[in-house]
Amino acid sequence: MNVSSSLLYKKIKTLTDQSPVDFIKSIRLNHALELLQSKKYTVTEVAEMCGFAYVEYFSLAFKKYFGKSPTKI
Q1: Taking Cα atoms as reference points, which of 34, 47, 15 lies closest to residue 73?
Q2: Which of 67, 54, 66 is CA-nearest to residue 26?
Q3: Are the beta carbons of 59 and 70 closer than 8 angstroms?
Q4: Please, what CATH class does the domain formed by 5-72 belong to?
Q5: What is the pTM of this model?
Q6: For each of the chain's 73 residues, which pLDDT tens digit applies?
């Protein structure tokens, strides 16, 4: 994007009120929700498809973000 990392951080924080890491994680978790609602994939498959290396971490992040376990979707 041809900007410094600090400027990119400030712009994303201003636009989304989230850090870049949290913003990217929210996009990944929303995509995971869509995949889980399609009922085509298991929780493990969805975690891997959305870039989470550990299913346990994915489950914790999902529950913290949406308030319910990915298995309850």
Answers
A1: 34
A2: 66
A3: yes
A4: mainly alpha
A5: 0.90
A6: 789 999 999 999 999 999 999 999 999 999 999 999 999 999 999 999 999 999 999 999 999 999 999 999 8
